[in-house]
Amino acid sequence: MTYHDFVMNNLETLLLFSVLTGGLAAFVAKRKEKDPLFWFFIGALFGMIGVFIVLFFPSAKKEQKLAYAGPEVTEIPQSMPSLSTLISYEWYYLEADETQVGPVRFFELQEKWHDKEVHKDTLVWNSSLSDWTTISALPNLETGLAGKQ
Fold first, then answer.
1. Residue 61: which H helix or E strand, with range?
2. Quick one: CA dihedral 117, 120, 122, 125, positive or negative?
3. What are the Cα distances from residue 47, in Å, to 13, 25, 38, 44, 99?
4. Distances (CA, A) of 49 to 25, 32, 36, 83, 102
5. Using one digit for the tens of pLDDT, what is the confidence trace for 77-133?
């Protein structure tokens, strides 16, 4: 039996093996947050070698963790007021010369944001806050003011 005859007689088996190894490579790639379609073709073309390559390739999560060089976060706020809650308050803010303005409704504060009269470092206060705080310290407020709901 020649090589050509062997391949033609076992073509279905060879294609099935290619699809299975491609699928396995894609599955592993997806779990490691890699492009599954690319790795499917690598697995289909190179068989188990492609699967082993994706298995030992670093995952995206580890790459992101290694790229972060700042201090570790030790305290995460347990509850951040939702945007709908923040909208319901009357707000006070300090202008650049530390003049207190308010009370204003959320949508007035949002207009001031878009007019660049308030920004992420502007000090704000409402009845739920114990002290004046910057807008950037309230991520839901900053997102809401920017209109990214």
1. helix 60-67
2. positive
3. 13, 9, 14, 5, 70
4. 10, 17, 16, 50, 67
5. 445 677 777 788 899 998 888 888 889 999 999 999 999 999 989 998 888 888 888
- pTM, whole model, 2 decimals? 0.45
Angular region, 147: left φ>0, alpha ψ -120 to 50, beta rest: left
DSSP calls for 79-146: ----HHHHHTS-EEEE-TT--EEEEE-HHHHHHHHHTTSS-TT-EEE-TT-SS-EEGGG-HHHHHHHH
pLDDT grade for 40, boundaries at 50, 70 and 90? very high
